Amino acid sequence: MEALELGFRYSEVELFRGLSFRLEKAQVRVVLGPSGSGKTTLLHLLAGLLCLQAGDVRWEGESIRQKSEEKLARRRLHTIGLVFQHHYLQPELTALENVLVPGYLAGRVDTGWGLELLGRVGLEKQAHLFPKALSGGERQRVALARALYNRPKILLADEPTGSLDRRNAERVMGLMLSLSQELGTALLLATHDEHLVAGLPEIRLG
Predict the structure, then answer these.
(1) pLDDT at res. 58
(2) Boundaries of each ABC transporter domain copy (predicted)?
(3) What does the angle CA 148 – CA 19 – CA 1 come to, to the nearest 5 degrees?
(4) Bridge-based pairing state of the strands 202-204 and 186-191
(5) Which residues of the chain have pLDDT under 50?
(6) Are 30 and 201 in contact (CB under 8 A)?
(7) CA 46 to CA 64: how far, in whole Å?
(8) Are 15 and 9 in contact (CB under 8 A)?
(9) Can you tell me the distance from the alpha carbon of 101 to that of 93, in angstroms, rounded to the nearest whole number?
(10) Which residues fall within 8 angstroms of residue 204, CB to CB, at 6 or more apart?
(11) What distance in Å separates the CA atoms of residue 73 and residue 69, rounded to the nearest whole number?
């Protein structure tokens, strides 16, 4: 993924301009900045969820600027994995069924891979449980497994540990880093918790 001279403003407030960087395979970078500095906006631009104002975003060398919503959605399904502060699990689905959702959307469901991912985040025994029976940290780990189901090239994580206690935050962070390396997935993590990501290459906003 490549960001080229990105700029964005809301009304009279300029969040950033001339922002450029690349994310290579299995590379990890952190977006740091206070609340309101544009971290979520940047991730939404990179994911093609928000219309570009200035600059461009390239997925595997291809510009997303002129693509229709339908084409972006299809390409995003196989290119981008998304993890948010709130897990957004479907309450009527089990943990395993939630992980398999991207597979249903892509037309290729692999229950074995879903169970393997749950195992990698320490939740294989909870596969049959519904989200209401899981802790906050467990729900976020299910969301991480779901984001990785289609083996995306890039994982975009927006404050994924913001609603977790320190122990669970560190566990989820460690899992994201290890699975990123294992699967060759680039990771871009937006957070305000500088202690949690100390030492990682950063992009600072605000």
Answers:
(1) 97
(2) 1-205
(3) 30
(4) unpaired
(5) none
(6) yes
(7) 9
(8) yes
(9) 9
(10) 31, 32, 33
(11) 6
Q: Residue type at 112?
A: G
Q: Under a CB-based contact definition with an 8 Å cutoff, are residues 166 and 92 in contact? A: no
**Distances from the Cα of 134 to the Cα of 7, 137, 166, 181, 203, angstroms:** 40, 8, 18, 27, 33
Q: Could you tell me the maximum CA-CA distance found in the chain, to the nearest angstrom?
A: 51
Q: Torsions phi, psi of 13, nearest 5?
A: -100, 115
Dist. CA 178–CA 107, nearest whole Å: 28
φ/ψ region of 18 (left if φ > 0, alpha if ψ in -120 to 50, else beta) reads left
Q: Are 122 and 141 in contact (CB under 8 A)?
A: yes
Per-residue model confidence (pLDDT) at position 36 = 87
CA atoms within 13 A on the CB side of 65: 13
For residue 118, give both structure tokens.
Answer: 């749950």
Crossing angle of helices 95-106 and 69-79, rounded to 10°:
130
Phi, psi of 190, deg, nearest 5: -100, 130
Amino acid, single-letter form, for residue 63: S
Tell how strand 54-59 and strand 62-63 pair up. Answer: antiparallel
Residue 192 pLDDT: 87
| Per-residue pLDDT at 41 | 96
| Distance between CA atoms of residues 190 and 73, nearest Å | 22
Cβ contacts of residue 62 below 8 Å, gap of 6+? none
* DSSP assignment letter at 92: T
